[in-house]
Write a structure and sequence with these properties.
By secondary structure, this protein is of the alpha/beta class. It folds into 2 domains: 2-159 and 215-270, Alpha-Beta Barrel (TIM Barrel); 170-213. The chain is built from 15 helices and 8 strands. The chain has helices at 10-18, 29-37, 45-55, 69-83, 107-117, 130-139, 148-159, 171-186, 192-197, 199-207, 216-229, 244-252, 262-268, 272-283, 287-290, and strands spanning 2-6, 24-26, 59-63, 88-94, 122-127, 143-146, 235-238, 257-260. Strands 1-2-3-4-5-6-7-8 form an 8-stranded parallel barrel, surrounded by 6 helices. 37% of the residues are buried.
Length: 295
Protein backbone atom coordinates (compact mmCIF):
# COMPACT_ATOMS: atom_id res chain seq x y z
CA UNK A 1 0.00 0.00 0.00
CA UNK A 2 1.28 3.46 -0.92
CA UNK A 3 1.03 6.28 1.60
CA UNK A 4 0.18 9.83 0.58
CA UNK A 5 0.32 12.66 3.09
CA UNK A 6 -2.91 14.63 3.33
CA UNK A 7 -1.53 18.04 4.14
CA UNK A 8 -0.52 21.40 2.71
CA UNK A 9 1.81 22.24 5.59
CA UNK A 10 5.27 22.20 3.99
CA UNK A 11 7.10 21.52 7.25
CA UNK A 12 4.95 18.42 7.83
CA UNK A 13 5.39 17.28 4.25
CA UNK A 14 9.17 17.67 4.36
CA UNK A 15 9.46 15.84 7.67
CA UNK A 16 7.26 12.95 6.50
CA UNK A 17 9.19 12.67 3.24
CA UNK A 18 12.45 12.52 5.23
CA UNK A 19 11.06 9.44 7.01
CA UNK A 20 11.14 7.64 3.66
CA UNK A 21 7.55 6.40 3.62
CA UNK A 22 5.70 9.02 1.53
CA UNK A 23 4.68 8.22 -2.06
CA UNK A 24 2.54 11.29 -2.83
CA UNK A 25 0.33 14.01 -1.37
CA UNK A 26 -3.21 15.35 -1.45
CA UNK A 27 -4.12 18.97 -0.77
CA UNK A 28 -7.05 21.33 -1.01
CA UNK A 29 -7.31 25.12 -1.44
CA UNK A 30 -8.29 25.79 2.17
CA UNK A 31 -5.30 23.89 3.55
CA UNK A 32 -2.96 25.68 1.15
CA UNK A 33 -4.38 29.09 2.03
CA UNK A 34 -3.98 28.48 5.77
CA UNK A 35 -0.39 27.33 5.28
CA UNK A 36 0.45 30.39 3.15
CA UNK A 37 -1.26 32.77 5.60
CA UNK A 38 0.85 31.37 8.44
CA UNK A 39 3.90 32.60 6.53
CA UNK A 40 2.73 36.21 6.69
CA UNK A 41 3.02 37.11 3.01
CA UNK A 42 6.57 35.80 2.64
CA UNK A 43 5.58 33.46 -0.18
CA UNK A 44 2.87 33.49 -2.85
CA UNK A 45 0.34 30.67 -3.17
CA UNK A 46 1.79 29.65 -6.55
CA UNK A 47 5.34 29.49 -5.22
CA UNK A 48 4.13 27.56 -2.20
CA UNK A 49 2.46 24.94 -4.39
CA UNK A 50 5.69 24.66 -6.42
CA UNK A 51 7.62 23.98 -3.19
CA UNK A 52 5.20 21.17 -2.31
CA UNK A 53 5.62 19.63 -5.76
CA UNK A 54 9.41 19.82 -5.52
CA UNK A 55 9.33 18.15 -2.11
CA UNK A 56 6.93 15.25 -2.73
CA UNK A 57 8.38 12.17 -4.51
CA UNK A 58 5.18 11.31 -6.37
CA UNK A 59 1.70 12.52 -7.33
CA UNK A 60 0.33 15.70 -5.77
CA UNK A 61 -3.43 16.28 -6.08
CA UNK A 62 -4.48 19.87 -6.82
CA UNK A 63 -8.13 20.88 -6.79
CA UNK A 64 -10.34 22.81 -9.21
CA UNK A 65 -12.91 25.20 -7.75
CA UNK A 66 -15.52 25.35 -10.54
CA UNK A 67 -18.65 23.18 -10.72
CA UNK A 68 -19.46 23.23 -14.46
CA UNK A 69 -17.68 20.73 -16.69
CA UNK A 70 -16.19 23.23 -19.17
CA UNK A 71 -14.92 25.46 -16.37
CA UNK A 72 -13.44 22.54 -14.42
CA UNK A 73 -11.69 21.36 -17.58
CA UNK A 74 -10.14 24.78 -18.21
CA UNK A 75 -9.03 25.13 -14.58
CA UNK A 76 -7.53 21.64 -14.68
CA UNK A 77 -5.58 22.48 -17.83
CA UNK A 78 -4.30 25.66 -16.15
CA UNK A 79 -3.14 23.79 -13.05
CA UNK A 80 -1.52 21.05 -15.11
CA UNK A 81 0.24 23.51 -17.43
CA UNK A 82 1.36 25.85 -14.65
CA UNK A 83 2.58 23.31 -12.12
CA UNK A 84 3.32 20.22 -14.23
CA UNK A 85 6.96 21.22 -14.85
CA UNK A 86 7.67 21.03 -11.11
CA UNK A 87 6.27 17.62 -10.23
CA UNK A 88 3.61 14.97 -10.83
CA UNK A 89 0.35 16.92 -10.88
CA UNK A 90 -3.00 15.14 -10.46
CA UNK A 91 -6.26 17.08 -10.73
CA UNK A 92 -9.01 16.60 -8.14
CA UNK A 93 -12.49 16.53 -9.65
CA UNK A 94 -15.60 15.89 -7.49
CA UNK A 95 -17.75 12.93 -8.54
CA UNK A 96 -20.86 15.12 -8.41
CA UNK A 97 -20.27 18.90 -8.36
CA UNK A 98 -23.98 19.78 -8.12
CA UNK A 99 -24.98 22.18 -5.36
CA UNK A 100 -28.63 21.23 -5.63
CA UNK A 101 -31.22 21.35 -8.39
CA UNK A 102 -28.84 22.84 -11.00
CA UNK A 103 -28.49 19.99 -13.50
CA UNK A 104 -24.77 19.53 -12.83
CA UNK A 105 -24.84 16.01 -11.37
CA UNK A 106 -22.85 14.52 -14.25
CA UNK A 107 -20.48 17.42 -14.94
CA UNK A 108 -17.76 15.81 -12.85
CA UNK A 109 -17.88 12.70 -15.02
CA UNK A 110 -17.82 14.81 -18.18
CA UNK A 111 -14.72 16.60 -16.94
CA UNK A 112 -13.04 13.34 -15.95
CA UNK A 113 -13.64 11.85 -19.39
CA UNK A 114 -12.27 14.88 -21.23
CA UNK A 115 -9.21 15.36 -19.02
CA UNK A 116 -8.35 11.66 -19.01
CA UNK A 117 -8.56 11.69 -22.81
CA UNK A 118 -6.04 14.54 -22.84
CA UNK A 119 -3.64 12.58 -20.65
CA UNK A 120 -4.28 14.68 -17.53
CA UNK A 121 -4.61 12.31 -14.54
CA UNK A 122 -7.67 12.82 -12.36
CA UNK A 123 -8.30 12.01 -8.71
CA UNK A 124 -12.09 11.72 -8.36
CA UNK A 125 -13.02 12.97 -4.90
CA UNK A 126 -16.02 13.11 -2.57
CA UNK A 127 -16.80 9.48 -3.37
CA UNK A 128 -19.27 8.23 -0.77
CA UNK A 129 -20.64 5.10 -2.52
CA UNK A 130 -19.24 2.20 -4.56
CA UNK A 131 -21.65 3.20 -7.32
CA UNK A 132 -19.98 6.60 -7.61
CA UNK A 133 -16.55 4.96 -7.71
CA UNK A 134 -17.65 2.66 -10.53
CA UNK A 135 -18.86 5.60 -12.63
CA UNK A 136 -15.60 7.49 -12.02
CA UNK A 137 -13.54 4.48 -13.09
CA UNK A 138 -15.62 4.08 -16.25
CA UNK A 139 -15.08 7.76 -17.04
CA UNK A 140 -11.32 7.19 -16.88
CA UNK A 141 -10.25 8.52 -13.47
CA UNK A 142 -6.70 7.57 -12.57
CA UNK A 143 -7.69 7.56 -8.89
CA UNK A 144 -10.93 7.41 -6.90
CA UNK A 145 -11.07 8.63 -3.31
CA UNK A 146 -13.76 7.05 -1.11
CA UNK A 147 -14.12 9.18 2.03
CA UNK A 148 -14.02 6.56 4.78
CA UNK A 149 -14.05 8.89 7.78
CA UNK A 150 -17.00 10.92 6.56
CA UNK A 151 -19.10 7.78 6.12
CA UNK A 152 -18.21 6.72 9.67
CA UNK A 153 -19.27 10.17 10.86
CA UNK A 154 -22.55 9.97 8.95
CA UNK A 155 -23.50 6.55 10.37
CA UNK A 156 -22.60 7.58 13.93
CA UNK A 157 -24.56 10.80 13.57
CA UNK A 158 -27.63 8.90 12.32
CA UNK A 159 -27.49 6.78 15.49
CA UNK A 160 -26.96 9.75 17.80
CA UNK A 161 -23.49 8.58 18.89
CA UNK A 162 -21.25 11.37 20.17
CA UNK A 163 -17.68 11.25 18.88
CA UNK A 164 -14.53 13.25 18.29
CA UNK A 165 -13.09 13.45 14.79
CA UNK A 166 -10.19 11.12 15.50
CA UNK A 167 -12.22 8.49 17.37
CA UNK A 168 -12.16 4.96 15.98
CA UNK A 169 -15.54 3.78 14.69
CA UNK A 170 -15.98 0.31 16.21
CA UNK A 171 -18.26 -1.19 13.58
CA UNK A 172 -17.66 -4.70 14.95
CA UNK A 173 -19.24 -3.62 18.23
CA UNK A 174 -22.01 -1.95 16.27
CA UNK A 175 -22.55 -5.22 14.38
CA UNK A 176 -23.04 -7.11 17.65
CA UNK A 177 -25.54 -4.50 18.81
CA UNK A 178 -27.31 -4.66 15.46
CA UNK A 179 -27.62 -8.46 15.63
CA UNK A 180 -28.96 -8.25 19.19
CA UNK A 181 -31.62 -5.74 18.18
CA UNK A 182 -32.54 -7.81 15.15
CA UNK A 183 -32.96 -10.91 17.33
CA UNK A 184 -35.25 -8.96 19.66
CA UNK A 185 -37.33 -7.85 16.66
CA UNK A 186 -37.64 -11.44 15.43
CA UNK A 187 -38.81 -12.91 18.73
CA UNK A 188 -42.54 -12.55 18.07
CA UNK A 189 -42.55 -12.95 14.30
CA UNK A 190 -43.91 -16.18 12.85
CA UNK A 191 -42.92 -16.15 9.17
CA UNK A 192 -40.34 -14.88 6.74
CA UNK A 193 -42.95 -12.69 5.07
CA UNK A 194 -43.91 -11.14 8.40
CA UNK A 195 -40.25 -10.48 9.21
CA UNK A 196 -39.65 -8.92 5.79
CA UNK A 197 -42.55 -6.52 6.27
CA UNK A 198 -41.62 -5.68 9.86
CA UNK A 199 -41.00 -1.94 10.08
CA UNK A 200 -38.94 -2.07 13.27
CA UNK A 201 -36.52 -4.58 11.75
CA UNK A 202 -36.05 -2.45 8.64
CA UNK A 203 -35.51 0.60 10.87
CA UNK A 204 -32.68 -1.13 12.76
CA UNK A 205 -30.87 -1.95 9.53
CA UNK A 206 -31.42 1.54 8.09
CA UNK A 207 -30.20 3.31 11.23
CA UNK A 208 -26.95 1.33 11.45
CA UNK A 209 -25.86 1.42 7.81
CA UNK A 210 -25.65 3.82 4.89
CA UNK A 211 -27.68 2.02 2.23
CA UNK A 212 -25.95 -1.26 3.03
CA UNK A 213 -22.52 0.24 3.76
CA UNK A 214 -21.47 -0.78 7.27
CA UNK A 215 -18.59 1.69 7.75
CA UNK A 216 -15.98 3.74 5.96
CA UNK A 217 -13.69 0.72 5.77
CA UNK A 218 -16.57 -1.31 4.30
CA UNK A 219 -17.02 1.43 1.69
CA UNK A 220 -13.34 1.18 0.72
CA UNK A 221 -13.50 -2.63 0.64
CA UNK A 222 -16.51 -2.63 -1.67
CA UNK A 223 -14.89 -0.08 -4.02
CA UNK A 224 -11.71 -2.17 -4.19
CA UNK A 225 -13.69 -5.34 -4.89
CA UNK A 226 -15.83 -3.85 -7.66
CA UNK A 227 -12.96 -2.18 -9.51
CA UNK A 228 -10.86 -5.34 -9.37
CA UNK A 229 -13.80 -7.46 -10.53
CA UNK A 230 -13.60 -5.63 -13.85
CA UNK A 231 -9.84 -4.97 -14.05
CA UNK A 232 -10.07 -1.19 -13.99
CA UNK A 233 -6.68 0.55 -13.92
CA UNK A 234 -8.12 3.15 -11.55
CA UNK A 235 -6.32 3.17 -8.18
CA UNK A 236 -8.29 3.49 -4.96
CA UNK A 237 -7.19 6.12 -2.44
CA UNK A 238 -8.67 5.59 1.04
CA UNK A 239 -9.36 9.18 2.11
CA UNK A 240 -10.66 10.98 5.17
CA UNK A 241 -8.67 8.60 7.38
CA UNK A 242 -8.94 9.46 11.06
CA UNK A 243 -6.69 7.07 13.03
CA UNK A 244 -4.02 4.38 12.76
CA UNK A 245 -6.40 1.46 13.23
CA UNK A 246 -8.42 2.63 10.24
CA UNK A 247 -5.18 2.64 8.21
CA UNK A 248 -4.57 -0.98 9.17
CA UNK A 249 -8.08 -1.97 8.18
CA UNK A 250 -7.98 -0.34 4.73
CA UNK A 251 -4.58 -1.99 4.19
CA UNK A 252 -6.15 -5.36 5.06
CA UNK A 253 -8.76 -4.94 2.32
CA UNK A 254 -6.02 -4.27 -0.23
CA UNK A 255 -6.50 -0.58 -0.99
CA UNK A 256 -3.89 0.85 -3.36
CA UNK A 257 -3.23 4.06 -1.44
CA UNK A 258 -4.15 5.68 1.87
CA UNK A 259 -3.84 9.45 2.19
CA UNK A 260 -3.12 10.30 5.80
CA UNK A 261 -2.92 13.41 7.97
CA UNK A 262 0.46 13.96 9.57
CA UNK A 263 -0.82 13.11 13.05
CA UNK A 264 -2.15 9.74 11.85
CA UNK A 265 1.26 8.87 10.38
CA UNK A 266 2.83 9.77 13.74
CA UNK A 267 0.27 7.59 15.53
CA UNK A 268 1.12 4.59 13.34
CA UNK A 269 4.69 4.26 14.59
CA UNK A 270 3.88 4.42 18.31
CA UNK A 271 3.00 1.68 20.82
CA UNK A 272 3.48 1.70 24.58
CA UNK A 273 5.16 -1.73 24.53
CA UNK A 274 7.67 -0.51 21.94
CA UNK A 275 8.53 2.41 24.24
CA UNK A 276 8.80 0.05 27.19
CA UNK A 277 11.07 -2.24 25.18
CA UNK A 278 13.35 0.60 24.14
CA UNK A 279 13.77 1.72 27.73
CA UNK A 280 14.72 -1.83 28.71
CA UNK A 281 17.12 -2.17 25.77
CA UNK A 282 18.92 1.03 26.74
CA UNK A 283 19.05 0.03 30.39
CA UNK A 284 20.68 -3.28 29.39
CA UNK A 285 23.56 -1.74 27.40
CA UNK A 286 26.80 -2.81 29.07
CA UNK A 287 29.88 -0.54 29.04
CA UNK A 288 32.00 -3.14 27.22
CA UNK A 289 29.54 -3.26 24.30
CA UNK A 290 29.29 0.50 24.21
CA UNK A 291 33.04 0.73 23.76
CA UNK A 292 32.74 -0.99 20.36
CA UNK A 293 31.20 2.16 18.88
CA UNK A 294 33.96 4.43 20.19
CA UNK A 295 36.78 2.81 18.26
Amino acid sequence: MKIFIDSAELDEIKKACEWGIIDGATTNPSLIKRAVDRRGGKISMEDYIIEILKTVPGPVSLEVIAVKADEMIEQARTLYRKFGPYGEVVIKIPINPSLGDDGLDFDGLKAIRQLSGEGIPVNCTLVMTPEQALLAAKAGAAYVSPFAGRIDDYIRTKMGIKFEKGDYFNYELLGIIREFRICKCLENLNSVAEAYRNGELAKVISETTDNGILSGVDLVAKVVKILRNYDFKTQVIASSIRNARQVREVAEVGVDIATLPFKVIEEMVKHYKTLEGMKRFMADVVPQYEEIFKK
